[in-house]
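Ligand: flavin-adenine dinucleotide. Inputs:
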Amino acid sequence: MPVSVAIVGSGPAGFYTAAALADSVDDVQIDIIERLAAPYGLVRDGVSPDHQTTKNICRKFEKTAMLESVRYFGNVDIGRDVKLAELREIYDAVVLAVGAPQDRALDIPGTDKAGVIGAASFVYWYNGHPDYRNIAPDLDVSAAAVIGVGNVAMDIARMLCLSEAELAATDLPEYAETAINESPLTDVYMLGRRGAADAKFTNVELRELAGMDECTPVVRTEQLPDGVEGDYSDRDKRLRERNLETLWEYSVLDADAKSKRIHLEFNASPVEILGQDRVEGIRLERTKVEDGRAVGTGEFFDIPCGLVVAAIGYHGAPIEGAPFDEKRGIIPNEDGRVGEGLYAAGWIKRGPTGVISSNRPDGVSVAEHLRDDFSDGGNKPGRQAFKTMLQDRNIRAVSFEDWKKIEAAELAGAEGSRPRKKFVVIEDMLAVLD
Ligand SMILES: Cc1cc2nc3c(=O)[nH]c(=O)nc-3n(C[C@H](O)[C@H](O)[C@H](O)COP(=O)(O)OP(=O)(O)OC[C@H]3O[C@@H](n4cnc5c(N)ncnc54)[C@H](O)[C@@H]3O)c2cc1C
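Predicted complex:
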């Protein structure tokens, strides 16, 4: 009998696992189960709408979805529609590739004020994730603070400052495009606790700031060290040096050359969100780095702003029936093995770090474990029993052929230079199929 495998989650980890399984296990039946109707996880709902070429990886995932041994079941939530325990009863193996969809909490006073939002919610909102389309962050502000100096923080700062023409070439949903276009925002402050050479953004993302239509990056020379000091690998040192070079170039730009500014502020640790019910500013403590750690200097300063986006990292969510490490936000595992017939891959296995391709090795190692664990084949019914279960519960699963029809409607709906017009309501996607 074929080994029946259910992969929960259709992000990069889910697809890389499916591809590796199809490659390395001879007789296997692979079902990718996704709670949203649309596949691809953060590639669709996280990767910046103005970075469409990054999303081309979906073409590779599509090839995996079309393999003879693979089926896609969208619009099925494991936990709500089908319990994990039920899935484990009917499949030989279940791989959890559910990502890390939540924000790491920002633990300072004032985070309950209106106008404070986590990066995960904010990015899902502007990317048209069906669960977040209605959160309507108030962009009627002249200044915003983005806490964090990684690529996600950079994406958010940039998205807030794109021109009308730049936005019109993205697949931003109409509500988000209108909100950003109508916003009077002129200044975004990106805040890093450590020094300029410690910033986590990549040089490509940093360089992009210089090419924006209406926005100038602003860096103060007194924040920039002459060189990189510390015990780093050659590669790490070179990356830091490259960022520093770019920051030095930015430090001489005319801040008023364009109508908007992204200020890069380093050695600044948020201590309190200011305001009454709404955010009116953020209080920061100046830091210095000692023994690799940012420590407060006792000097405080405020930045007035009406929006605070905390981009300080993502966090996994528990799945009923699977163990969960609350502190790390991951499913505890040994190189992807969670328990008998239960595996994990991607951000829920490793934590929320790395790029799309970083999830590939996870898929490969799960496939190797499965090949070893099921060398005599499988003995559970898998797909057929799953289909019956969905039918009995009146759950309308979206197949990959269905998704291609929905996608065709998204592509056909695109106007001008927009790559697609995303559906943001699952019912609207299903209506395409009726
Ligand atoms: C804002 C942002 C921008 C990024 N930009 C880039 C970039 O430009 N380039 C790059 O290389 N990397 C980028 N990354 C990193 C990349 O997106 C991640 O490495 C990758 O998506 C993680 O893959 P994953 O499969 O573990 O999780 P995800 O991509 O989150 O996929 C998890 C999937 O599981 C589904 N799921 C969750 N729970 C259930 C359930 N109970 N039942 C069924 N399905 C479920 C989710 O709906 C989702 O589709 C970015 C990340 C973020 C957060």
